[in-house]
Amino acid sequence: MIKYFKQIITELWSILKGMKITIKYFFAKPTTVQYPEERIQMTERFRGMVKADTDKCISCLYCVNICPVSCIDLEGEKSDAPAKVMNKEGKAMKRIKTVTKFDVNIAQCIQCGFCAEGCPTAAIYLSKEHENSALSREELIKHYAK
Amino acid sequence: MPESETAKQSEGFSELSRAVSTFVGEELVINFGPQHPSMHGVLRLIVKSEGEIVSEITPVIGYLHRGMEKIAERLNYHQFMPYTDRIDYLASMNCNFAYAATVEKLAGIEIPKRAEYIRVIMAELNRIASHLVFFGTAGLESGAWTPIVYAFREREYIVDLFDMTCGQRLTYNYFRIGGVADDLPKGFMEKARAFCDYFEPKIKEYNELLSYNEIFIKRTANVAVLPPETAVKYSVTGPNLRASGVKWDLRKNEPYSIYPEIDFDIPVSSGEKGMVGDTWNRYIIRMREMEESVKIIRQCLDKIPEGDYLTKVPRLFKAPPGEVYCRFENPRGELGFYLISDGGKSPYRLKIRTPSFAHLWVLPEISTGGMISDLIVAFGSLDLVVPEIDR
């Protein structure tokens, strides 16, 4: 009998001990952010939606080949007047091809960042955009070619 | 708890089960999952029960099968890295680590010392994050709603650290064959140290809140006992094995990376409350492991050398023909990659040995003869992650 009551007391005591912690946090400042009214700023290296600047693209097809899920569709055409583009190191490169088609299927994209990592001219990059829901599958295919 | 009392309890338990089986004639088949609030993912269990007592459990797997091993044969060595993120989404860094190191071993690539340190820091941070999720769900499964909120609050700090280093919060894809993708960002060291200082007292708080709560102990001690012989027979590894009293940790027994240079202990269960290998011991071993991980991170932050973080490996490199098997200590157990190369630019065969797959099959062994509500607690204590079972 004594053991029974002793057990109840120890159990109550351990509940109180836990309550002490929860009450402490009950009066503390909340750690959450009220999205979408408040927004957290994305970090510098944040990998969001893939975007492309087709003026810089030299159609080398590096991104198409490295993409593990093959979500990039790129086509280039030989241009009559080769333009100059800067590469990542700041050296000038000759752009022989112009982009005619640059589609990224962001429904398939896993935002691994391999394409941006190896792009010689930084034409393809991962933006800070992360709210990319759409009503249809067609909307999820982004056309970047002009 | 003294041994005599434990024996008495288990005796009483079997008596209860006998008593129930005498007046319950028909077996009831219950379908758990594939979508069930207490299933960690999509796993299905067909449970046969006599009243409240479980008499048979048949796990049904395959709902999350993605054919990763076959995909690996189609991609080149670099391209498979994001897929390893998805083997165990709660410990992506550890899976990245294991895959990268396996390919490096096969191809004989030396990686810079700084990269090794960064890798270990990330792996240990991810181990803490993974164990925090376990801590939260262990509470949920036994009816405590508060721990998960606290666990996720602390996990957020770690995820923030990962976010600033690699730009993602879940599937990191940070490791590369030959090192890591990028150097540690500015302010990482200070933030990581601040996290260590912040986190250590929190573990004591958790212990007060849940681990040593009398009701939680009553709920978990002596429930679903996994004896060491059974654990070894079923090739159970990681914290689940150590909870059964077997001192086996690859970081000590088969040291890899920079672990030999670091001083840390391997917590092994001694049956402080209840029997060795029961649910409570499986729980507490992870709490102790978090303390050890903090210790490892602290040492790595102090010792980390300056230098390069990546050895350049060509994009389409060809690994020499041969085969290699590497196993690594993940938060859940041993993760092994068996890689066969025929000299091509993609693996000839890649077999992934995951801990959760081995751990699932001890569930029928430890839970039959127990109550249905104990099945959920036992299931949670094994810390299974379903994408890891199916790959």
Count of distinct strands of chain A:
5
- What is the makeup of the main sheet of chain A? 3 strands, antiparallel
N→C terminal distance of chain A: 85 Å
Overall SS class of chain B: mainly alpha
Number of strands of chain B: 8
Uncertain segments of chain A: none
Count of helix runs of chain A? 3
- H/I helix tally of chain B: 16
Strand composition percent of chain B: 5-15%
Q: What order do the helices and strands of chain A follow?
A: HEHEEHEE
How much of the polypeptide of chain A forms β-strand, as a percent range? 25-35%
Instruction: Give the assembly state of these chains.
Output: heterodimer
Radius of gyration of chain B: 22 Å
- List the strand order in the largest sheet of chain A: 2-3-5
Low-confidence spans of chain B? none
Average of pLDDT of chain B: 86
Q: How far do the termini of chain B sit from each other?
A: 40 Å
User: What sequence of helices (H) and strands (E) makes up the elements of chain B?
Assistant: HEEEHHHHHEEHHHHHHEEEHHHH
What structural class should be given to the helix and strand makeup of chain A? Answer: alpha+beta
Gross geometry of chain A: elongated
Largest inter-chain contact set:
A-B, 27 and 32 residues
Give structural attributes:
heterodimer, A: alpha+beta, 3-stranded antiparallel β-sheet, two-stranded antiparallel ribbon, 5 strands, B: about 400 residues, mainly alpha, 8 strands
